[in-house]
Amino acid sequence: MATLLGGIIFWRLVIAPAGLEKERGALLETFAAGFRPLVLLSIAGLALSGAINYVSAPGHTRLYHAIFGVKLLLALHVFAVSFLIVQPNHPRRTRLATGTMISGLIILFISAWLRRHF
Predict the structure, then answer these.
(1) Which of 115, 97, 106 has its CA nearest to residue 13?
(2) pLDDT tens per residue across span 68-103
(3) Which of 1, 84, 92, 118 is the 20 to 30 A CA-CA neighbour of 77?
(4) Burial of 78 per CB tally in 10 Å (0-12, 13-18, 19+)
């Protein structure tokens, strides 16, 4: 999660507002091409580890499952938008990165809360 969310936060807070007018398009394309394999590996690793963790700890309450469902929906949002962000010549990368960054931080908060209280 650190690789995926860290890359998106770096994209949104460092790369996008860099202010390089002429080089900005080429810079974003280069960054997207380099980030693409990390996105795919991160998503595969998160899906696999999440499934293993969920199956290995049965017997949770209804509240846990409700909150876990919200976390899962947010994770699907992050996965889908991460695929879109690294596509070539995508015009709305910065806007998508903002929403993904917020969803990813909420996922981290929910994960920490679930781990502490359940």
Answers:
(1) 97
(2) 999 999 999 999 999 999 999 888 888 999 999 999
(3) 118
(4) buried
Amino acid letter for position 76 = L
Residue with tokens 């679930």: 114
Task: Compute the distance between CA of residue 9 and CA of residue 97 in angstroms, rounded to an integer.
Answer: 8
Tokens representing 110? 């929910």
Distances, alpha carbon 62 to alpha carbons 68, 72, 116, in Å: 10, 15, 16
- Asked if the model's pLDDT at residue 20 lies above 60, the reply is yes
- The string of DSSP letters for the chain reads -HHHHHHHHHIIIIIGGG--TTTHHHHHHHHHHHHHHHHHHHHHHHHHHHHHHHHHS----HHHHHHHHHHHHHHHHHHHHHHHHTSTT-TTHHHHHHHHHHHHHHHHHHHHHHHHH-
Length, in residues, of the chain? 118
Distance CA 4, CA 12 (A): 12
Euclidean distance between CA atoms 65 and 70, whole angstroms: 9
